[in-house]
Design a protein that fits this description.
With 423 residues, the protein is an alpha/beta fold. The protein has helices at 15-26, 71-82, 101-104, 126-132, 197-202, 214-222, 279-287, 298-324, 392-422, and strands at 7-11, 30-34, 46-50, 56-60, 86-88, 93-97, 108-111, 118-120, 137-140, 143-152, 161-169, 178-183, 185-188, 225-235, 245-249, 254-259, 271-277, 346-357, 368-370, 375-377.
């Protein structure tokens, strides 16, 4: 009897979801990916825009690069490099102690130890596009998963569990719900599916509630995320710093700064910088009292973030240029050596509400699962990153790979058991 092709539903088209789908496809599955957004990448997403002078710009708004600490991930990165979708970022990297910047206008900068930093090429999400092109993978974008249902498959009551996925078009709450099935495996990589936000805002349970896998759902809900605000800046003239990125410590607002245009494959026409906020600043803005009472729209709130973060970025860069000797510390009245950066050609702030997991919830197994039902969840929150915050891509990838292998084993065992019953 000819065996049927196994089918998998993967929720989320970030790095975890697309690695899972790609690996499952290589193992013989039809892998259907459902992504609520219009683009691929998740934390590896890329924002494209145009400066007022017509300059085309792009920013890696999430992960800035990734590192590798294991042979398993090294082999994957080698594959990405051979495919032309990942390249070493051969820049100059430094740490910046900003503990005296606010009060004294002084920073201390030290070069970081030599480390192999990789980026997607020509964009961070190029890796995700490569994975999405794996034969056997189908990606459904702008498709929101709203629920799950399962049933016993096969010709007897003891057949393997099958799953249906209920979806509708993103951004349209009135769009009809479409039921898609039947899947041997479901893998959820979008942790938002377990969020109780729907219940609080709309009185509707989370999509995970319908799957009736409470242990997985509760574990996902218990994993808190650190938030981050991101600023994208385009400057007409290149900043004369010798470094391409700074890990900033002891600053109330800024945690990281990178010259995005120094990465391989990026547009070089203008100096483009990407700045990440501290978690404390992001939390205060998102959950605290930094929003003026008359600020009602998201755009206005993001404009406040952009202004505040650019002012802090300017202070840090000026202090670094002074330390480097490009600017004199006594040149406050010398207009040829300004103490602030010129106004940027473009700046835009972006809210990244679930940037980094605060703890790993499945370090031993590397994923969450109900193997009897064929339901899995994986992501960077399952494995402790080897290097915070740069190890999250590695953690997400390894979690996805182990999930795919276990899903393969479970469905093979279920198929074998079902075949014996039929004979």
């Amino acid at each position: 009897m000819k065996s049927e092709t196994r089918k998998a539903a993967v929720v989320g088209a970030g790095i975890s979801g697309l690695v899972t789908a790609s690996e499952l496809a290589k193992l013989g599955f039809e892998a259907h990916v459902f992504e609520s957004g219009r683009g691929l990448g998740g934390r590896m997403s890329t924002r494209r825009s145009e400066a007022p002078d017509g300059t085309k710009v792009q920013f890696d708004v999430g992960a800035q690069f990734f590192t590798s600490s294991t042979q398993e991930f090294n082999a994957i990165v080698d594959e990405w490099e051979k495919a032309g979708t990942a390249t070493l970022w051969e820049g100059q990297f430094a740490s910046m102690d900003a503990s005296r910047c606010v009060t004294k206008g002084v920073v201390t900068v030290q070069p970081l130890p030599e480390e192999r930093r990789w980026v997607g090429t020509p964009t961070m999400n190029a890796v995700c596009k490569y994975l999405a092109a794996t034969p056997g993978v189908t990606v459904n974008q702008a498709t929101l998963v709203v629920g799950f249902s399962n049933f016993r498959g096969g010709e007897c009551e003891e057949g393997a569990w099958k799953w249906c996925v209920e979806t509708r078009q993103s951004g349209d709450p009135m769009a009809p719900v479409v039921t898609r099935g039947d899947y041997d495996v479901v893998v959820v990589t979008d942790k938002a599916l377990a969020s109780e936000r729907n219940l609080k805002l709309h009185g509707e349970p989370s999509p995970m509630a319908s799957a009736d896998v409470p242990e997985i759902t509760n574990t996902m809900q218990a994993c808190s995320q650190r938030s981050c605000l991101t600023l994208m800046v385009v400057i007409n003239e290149a900043i004369a710093t010798e470094y391409d990125s700074f890990d900033v410590c002891n600053h109330p607002m800024i945690a990281y700064m990178a010259r995005n245009s120094s990465k391989p494959g990026r547009p070089r026409g203008r100096d483009q910088w990407l700045i990440h906020s501290t978690t404390a600043y992001a939390d205060n803005f998102i959950y605290g009292n930094l929003n003026p009472k008359d600020t009602k729209t998201h755009a206005l709130r993001m404009k406040i973030v952009a202004d505040e973060m650019f002012a802090a970025f300017s202070d840090l860069v000026v202090a670094q240029l002074q330390e480097q000797g490009v600017l004199r510390r006594d040149s406050v009245d010398d207009h040829s050596s300004p103490q602030t950066l010129p106004q940027p050609l473009m700046m835009e702030a972006h809210r990244w509400g679930s940037a980094f997991p605060m703890r790993a919830v499945a370090a031993d197994k590397k994923f969450l699962s109900d193997t009897e039902l064929g339901f899995f969840a994986c992501g960077d929150y399952c494995i402790p990153p080897s290097c915070v915050p740069y190890g999250y891509i590695e953690a997400a990838t390894l979690s996805a790979m182990h999930t795919a292998r276990r899903a393969d084993e479970c469905t093979k065992a279920a198929c074998s058991h079902h075949s014996k019953q039929l004979t």
